[in-house]
């Protein structure tokens, strides 16, 4: 089972869309940051600051990235989002994710 | 903001009730364990092994502990659950929690 060791985790959840999307912030010794999150079925648009790597750990969703057609992403797959961009996800089944903030 | 430092976090979520309740496992250097979780509105019954301290970080729910009347718990409040017991929560608004497993 994959684990992150020697990290700091923020106790309180990050809450979006009335909690239908929630995540926890994980801080690494090298100054990098990830969030571990969970999404209920629904449609959500997010805005990025830094570029992000979104790993879908479980579940299924469609994502529309800037300038791209909709694509289906399943557990075990991932996608990259550019910085300063908006992307929309249609979450079909409850989805577990790990979001890495890239520099 | 409260944080847990020098911990190990399991990447994959613990998923209950089709993901309406999900949590992440946090492992401490002293061998103790907590889960940081999030519940959508709904009614959920859980069974304990070890006794648990449930801190409700945000949200509102009613809980029925073994042999007790229903009581309302709001963000900032907590309750203890005995080991080898069942308890039921009626979650009224999406609720953020920290569950500590006690020995």
Automatic annotation (TrEMBL), chains A, B:
Catalytic activity line of the entry: guanosine + phosphate = alpha-D-ribose 1-phosphate + guanine; a purine D-ribonucleoside + phosphate = a purine nucleobase + alpha-D-ribose 1-phosphate; thymidine + phosphate = 2-deoxy-alpha-D-ribose 1-phosphate + thymine; uridine + phosphate = alpha-D-ribose 1-phosphate + uracil
Keywords: Glycosyltransferase, Transferase
A Pfam family recorded for this sequence: Ppnp
Highest taxon, organism lineage: Bacteria
InterPro entries, per the entry: Ppnp (IPR009664), RmlC-like_jellyroll (IPR014710), RmlC_Cupin_sf (IPR011051)
Enzyme nomenclature, EC number: 2.4.2.1, 2.4.2.2
Function as written in the Swiss-Prot or TrEMBL entry: Catalyzes the phosphorolysis of diverse nucleosides, yielding D-ribose 1-phosphate and the respective free bases. Can use uridine, adenosine, guanosine, cytidine, thymidine, inosine and xanthosine as substrates. Also catalyzes the reverse reactions.
HAMAP family: Nucleos_phosphorylase_PpnP
Family statement: Belongs to the nucleoside phosphorylase PpnP family.
Name of the protein in question: Pyrimidine/purine nucleoside phosphorylase
Biological classification of the source: Bacteria, Pseudomonadati, Pseudomonadota, Gammaproteobacteria, Methylococcales
